[in-house]
Amino acid sequence: MTSMLTCAIRSLPAASARAVGLFQPKSKKTLAKSGVKNVVVVEGVRIPFLQSGTSYADLMPHDLARAALQGLLNRTGVPQEVVDYIVYGTVIQEVKTSNVAREAALGAGFSDKTPAHTVTMACISSNQAMTTGVGLIASGQCDVVVAGGVELMSDVPIRHSRKMRKAMLTLNRAKTLSQKLALISKIRPSYFAPELPAVAEFSTSETMGHSADRLAAAFAVSRVEQDEYALRSHTLAKKAQDEGLLVDVVPFSVPGRDTVSKDNGVRPSSMEQMGKLKPAFVKPYGTVTAANSSFLTDGASAVLLMSEEKALAMGYKPKAYLRDFVYVSQDPKDQLLLGPTYATPKVLQKAGLTLADVDVFEFHEAFAGQILANLKAMDSDWFAQNYMGRKSKVGAPPLDKFNNWGGSLSLGHPFGATGCRLVMTAAHRLKKEGGQYGLVAACAAGGQGHAMLVELYPQ
């Protein structure tokens, strides 16, 4: 498929605002459904997203998640006993706190009577946490759910080799000294080689960076285009930081260190400086570099979800409704990072909207090449007809509505926590920019993806 895709895509037009002209004007209807509870986002926060190995390096994942939960409690004043359920997303789990949602909740002062569980779905883990909360509320099981996500890339589990683990477990069961000595004599030096974690697909053994490079090549996304997009992300993020638009960030007083109050990966550079970097994955001809990729990030987020009735009864003014959402999955070998392309038309069709109805787009930026490839795929009738079973393209989001406050390339990407950031940024942008509908979308490992519609709460 790759060669066929590469040849056919090279002639596709670049994504632009021109596609929007194909669609009808905004309907401005509400997406409320008869007989279905309205689920609202009351508030959402995140601690600053930091590059791994910096101020959070000595902490554990539940420390970050606890800080996000406490930040949410402090900002909302919601009584802890009112929360019916807590669900968190994470990807690389710390063995000691495998259910990080529960450990963080207890640490943040929630009642030990409040259930909590942890979900994992790669880069859309906190998206899954939020939609799990939506399901609990919409079904009438709960009225108040806290959802969030956390990732600590500064300290990931490094295991002994499988042979060494097997030898150690067998040794632990040995009864006599002679049995233990016999087992020890069988251990070889090669057993001590550690198993290092990698951002790679189990099913294909390919790192995500290689997939991004191949995807960029297939869609004829040049190195210059990728660097330009990455520079755009950092420039917009810096502007948003300086103007105080990133209001979901709450300061975190790191034990033994200073208080951190902003994301530390936002670093606008220049095309000249970015152009000096060598390919990070496919050497020497690849186009994906450290400058146009998201970086390893530590961070945590949390959102307060309620039924609309409960929120109003408690005197809250919600920020937004969480409306229709979809999950998709494709071939992880050839279409690993195309989740937004597949999910966007499905969620729009489900809600009865067109691309032109959407005022704000917030897409996860794993790589600049991944974003640009998705925009080209979305703007391609050929791709829609040959791979998506659709008669025509959905169109590409116009860049003047797209990730206007930066994205994962600049703000950072703690795998399990990004989804909540996307939703809260969409909600805040809708209010700031006077829009009604926001569309959040993301790709994820395993060839999966997610899209969700956010509707501004009436002002």
Question: Can you tag this structure with a few keywords?
Answer:
ten-stranded mixed beta sheet; two-stranded antiparallel ribbon; EC 2.3.1.155; single chain; alpha+beta; 459 residues
Task: Explain what the structure shows.
With 459 residues, this protein is α+β, with helices and mostly antiparallel strands. It has a domain at 163-192. It contains 15 helices and 12 strands. The strands form 2 sheets. Strands 1, 2, 3, 4, 5, 8, 9, 10, 11 and 12 form a 10-stranded mixed β-sheet that branches. Strands 6-7 form a two-stranded antiparallel sheet. α2 (61-76) crosses α3, α7 crosses α12 (368-378) and α11 packs across α12 (368-378). The chain is globular. Residues 1-27 have low confidence and may be disordered. Its EC number is 2.3.1.155, 2.3.1.16. Keywords: Acetylation, Acyltransferase, Endoplasmic reticulum, Fatty acid metabolism, Lipid metabolism, Membrane, Mitochondrion, Mitochondrion inner membrane, Mitochondrion outer membrane, Transferase, Transit peptide. This is Trifunctional enzyme subunit beta, mitochondrial.
